Amino acid sequence: MVCWMLVLTATACSKQAEQSAPLQPLNVSAEGPAYFPAASYRFTNNELTSAGFQLGRRLFYDELLSVENDISCASCHQQRFAFSDPSHAIPHGAHGKLGTRNSPGIFNMRWTPAMMWDGGITNLELMPVAPLTNPVEMDETLDNIVRKLNANASYREAFRGAFGSETITAPMMLKAFAQFMGAMVSADSRYDRFRQGKLSLSADEMSGMQLFDDKCGSCHSGELFTDFSFRNNGIDSAGKDDGRFLVTQQNTDRGTFRVPSLRNVAITRPYMHDGRFNSLEEVLQHYTSGIRHAENLDPVLKTGLGLSAEQSRKIISFLGTLTDETFTKDPRFSKP
Amino acid sequence: MKSILFIAATAALLFTSCKKEKITGDPGTLTGNMIIELDPKWNTEAFVPGKTYINQFGEDFTPSLFKYYVSNIVLTAKDGSTWSQPNSYHIIDHKNGANELVLKNIFAGDYTSVSFTIGVDSVRNVSGAQEGALDPANQMFWSWNTGYIFFKLEGKSSASADSTVSYHTGGFTGANNALRTVTLSLETAGIATEINPDETPEVHVFVDAAKVFYGASDIKISEMSSNHMPGAKAAKLADNYRGMFKVDHVH
């Protein structure tokens, strides 16, 4: 309750704070529940503080960071959809250019050892460089972003508060982003409350969970609902997108993509690396009867999952329990 | 002189035992500095961006950018002890003549070789957002496949289908490892380079950009005009450019 009040106070003060007083400190714990695995990002050399988190939050929502000052991270990563983008299969970036891969949700990044659909980025601090500088996303240069930030007295003040430095640098900005995104923990879904013995799930959800473990659990395993591997799931026989091959140059990685976490999956449509499926029904339809043979097709998918309509319905019912509304409504992560 | 030698020897001993911790500048030990001058060349000519050169295969090449990382500089003394520069990461950008690296607080002694890595070691490639030479804003960083760009040579050539030449290398794991170590002798006619508090030796190194195209293997612009990712092509470039450094003289 005390914590909640702090949050409200801070929200109320944030507008006026831009001109004068520092923001009220927030509770910025980035701990996951005991049943989460060890985190891969541990805030080494980047201690999580209220000031750093608030700065990262402000940067996340600021259009100043794009080439024409019209796109922010939040343009394609919206909180109410667990920081994904339901309206575009592929991102619409600077100058109306189109990206090639679907904007994933952002949560539990501390537990994500390799980011992006091809796993090309392995450190949370370096993740923002890709969308900030990609010509089909925000199309800025780090140099120019740093120039724009240094020209802004209010940002200089915020960076001084977070990092004690008079001059803003790109690494400081990246560390602030990592504090904000690192603290985006999503672990209060109905599934979590069930896991913690706080509520029970419906009969459909329960049998959906069993079916899920049986049919989907070999890849979407563990409490993050992914084994963090890269697999070819047979959506194309010969890909337009070589996926992880582009990172590793290994033929065995051609057409493989990151197995995504299924937490919040019901609210993070569209699905697949190119956002080709608009519903979970379509996704399960694919795994039942849509698998195409590909050179690197994952062996577990060779014969399809063979799901009946009833089984699919139950699995989707279970997947709905992974939606975390505490996270999607948490005022700490909202636009400041 | 005897006492200097004694101190140097003691220092060397001390240092050897501490090598892993990279302790430098033990108080009470005599130290000196060294300057390494990296002087860009095209064969024996001066390397000047905008000037047109002809490579080993008769292809024209007009460079616009010649930039790389030199890191983890280590000096080896006559007695086998080593001195490592702390936080040793440098971007060399040959825009205009030679670039200087100043090595400070080296233990006094006679040094026979210098070695360094072209690129950024794997540890620093996975250490998150870093300042200075390792700031990702230095345009020596791949955003989509996280890691530092070790080396860039860019320019124009009529031998290239799109008239541009753009060689970027990087990659620090497994078969894609493009890190290369260069070791150069600091001996002149068998005499090692002496470091002491009173003199700062200058090591003039010629950096021959023409060697990027040949050496370990032939790289014709007509067959390979660009590379922008880790992999076999980056490794091939790295095998060539590791041979582009040569000590011309020490004074």
What does this structure look like?
The complex is a heterodimer of chains A (336) and B (251). With 336 residues, chain A is mainly alpha-helical. Helices cover 35% and strands 1% of the residues of chain A. The model of chain A is unreliable at 1-21 (pLDDT under 50). Chain B contains three helices and 16 strands. In chain B, the strands form two sheets. In chain B, strands 3, 4, 5, 6, 8, 9, 10, 11, 12, 13 and 15 form an eleven-stranded mixed β-sheet that branches. In chain B, strands 1, 2, 7, 14 and 16 form a five-stranded mixed β-sheet that branches. Chain A binds chain B through residues 44-46, 116, 118, 120-126, 129-130, 132-134, 141-143, 146, 169-172, 174-175, 178, 246-249, and chain B through 126-131, 135-137, 139, 141, 143-146, 176, 229-232.
List the helices and strands and how they pair.
The complex is a heterodimer of chains A (336) and B (251).
Chain A: H1 2-17, H2 50-60, H3 73-76, H4 129-133, H5 142-150, H6 153-163, H7 170-182, H8 190-195, H9 203-215, E1 230-231, H10 245-248, E2 257-258, H11 280-290, H12 309-319, H13 325-328
Antiparallel strand pairs in A: 1-2
Helix pairs in contact in A: 2-6, 2-7, 9-12
Chain B: H1 2-18, E1 31-42, E2 45-46, E3 53-54, E4 60-77, E5 82-84, E6 89-93, E7 99-107, E8 109-118, H2 122-125, E9 141-142, E10 147-156, E11 164-170, E12 180-185, E13 193-195, E14 202-208, E15 226-227, H3 232-241, E16 245-250
Parallel strand pairs in B: 1-14, 11-15
Antiparallel strand pairs in B: 1-2, 1-7, 3-4, 4-5, 4-6, 4-8, 4-10, 8-12, 8-13, 9-10, 10-11, 14-16
Tell me roughly what share of residues is in helical segments of chain B.
10-25%
Strand content of chain A: under 5%
Count of beta strands of chain A: 2
What kind of assembly state do the chains in view correspond to?
A: heterodimer
Largest sheet of chain A: 2 strands, antiparallel
- Note the beta-strand portion of chain B: 35-45%
Helix content of chain A: 25-40%
Shape of chain A: globular
Which chains have the largest interface?
Answer: A-B, 32 and 20 residues
H/E element sequence of chain B: HEEEEEEEEHEEEEEEEHE
Radius of gyration of chain A (CA) equals 21 Å
Count of DSSP helices of chain B?
A: 3
Structural class of chain B comes to: mainly beta
**Strand arrangement, major sheet of chain A:** 1-2
Coarse morphology of chain B? globular
- Low-confidence parts of chain A lasting 5 or more residues at pLDDT below 50? 1-21
